[in-house]
Design a protein that fits this description.
Blueprint: E1 9-13, H1 20-33, E2 38-41, E3 45-46, E4 49-50, E5 56-57, H2 59-68, E6 81-82, H3 88-94, H4 101-114, E7 117-121, H5 136-143, E8 147-152, H6 157-170, E9 175-181, H7 190-200, E10 205-209, H8 226-233
Parallel strand pairs: 1-7, 1-8, 2-7, 3-6, 8-9, 9-10
Antiparallel strand pairs: 4-5
Helix pairs in contact: 1-2, 1-8
Bound molecules: adenosine-5'-triphosphate, 7,8-diamino-nonanoic acid and magnesium ion.
Length: about 240
């Protein structure tokens, strides 16, 4: 890593289910490999499961916890844990929860004080709403973090990636890199799609994560394994 390389990031994606958690976990591992005490954070999660000990868990938070080297319940990595896997502002509304950006920012700041680097994973795409007034783009802007875009390589991703870049830039944030994530079904013309994105995204390409080998695939509602995160980490580099 170069001396002034950024170490905290906001990881956004072209959509929900594009591999932000896989990439976030992998970036945390890479930071920790260089001796940086890095931790993951999510402003909000929607969708929980009950683990073997009967506790309510969220797979993204368990993945970020694993990547960060934290034991269960050691540290809160998210101020708002909602049960239903749906648009967070709607689930929150239904449950009478106010997704207060101030609370998100306070918890994020507390982590920045306790760790060397914080890797923030967004929820869904860049402009997912929090309340009637605010969205995750506002949170990214308030955190003032360099942004990494994860492109889920499927048909339609070129347009989604370019729209997302415009939205990030219109919030005066810097895109420090982007990752191509191959997803479980490799799309036709994968390399040509990646080249098209390289030609049009004016930010460094940080690597391409292949489809996970069958033995590293995970069921829905389960965290990634450390082996899956290591596999992804081998295919990407940290921004310089
Ligand atoms: N490289 C890959 N190979 C195979 N499957 C993948 C790959 N990347 C992601 N997936 C699968 O796609 C699904 C979505 O991935 P992931 O949960 O990382 O997305 P996300 O962008 O973090 O979603 P969310 O918006 O819910 O946070 C998961 O079931 C995961 O197993
Ligand atoms: C529940 C899911 N896994 C994500 N965490 C939230 C995705 C919200 C998408 C909202 C939208 O853009 O329509
Ligand atoms: Mg995720």
């Amino acid at each position: 890593m170069t001396p002034n390389a950024p170490t905290s990031f906001f990881i956004t994606g072209t959509d929900t289910e594009v591999g932000k958690t896989l990439a976030s976990g992998a970036f945390i591992l890479k930071l920790r490999e260089t001796g940086i005490k890095a931790v993951g954070f999510k402003p909000v999660v929607a969708g929980t499961y009950i683990d073997a000990s009967g506790k309510e868990r969220n797979e993204d938070l368990e993945t970020l916890r694993l990547a960060s080297g934290l034991n269960s319940d050691e540290q809160s990595l998210c101020p708002f844990v909602l049960g239903q896997a749906a648009a967070p502002h709607l689930v929150a509304q239904k449950n009478g929860v106010h997704l207060d950006a101030t609370i998100i920012l306070d918890e994020f700041k507390a982590l920045t004080a306790a760790f060397d680097a914080v890797v923030v994973e967004g929820a869904g795409g860049f402009l997912v709403p929090l309340t009637e007034q605010e969205d995750l783009g506002d949170v990214a802007q308030a955190m003032d973090l360099p942004v990494i875009l994860v492109v889920g390589m499927r048909l339609g991703c070129i347009n989604h990636a370019l729209l997302t870049c415009e939205a990030i830039q219109s919030r005066q944030l810097t895109i420090v890199g982007w990752v191509a994530n191959t997803l479980s079904n490799e799309m036709p013309l994968l390399e040509e799609n990646i080249q098209t994105l390289k030609d049009r995204i004016f930010a460094p390409f940080l690597g391409s994560i292949p489809s996970l080998p069958a033995q590293l695939n995970k069921p829905d509602n389960a965290p990634y394994s450390i082996e899956a995160l290591r596999f992804a980490a081998e295919h990407i580099r940290l921004p310089e």
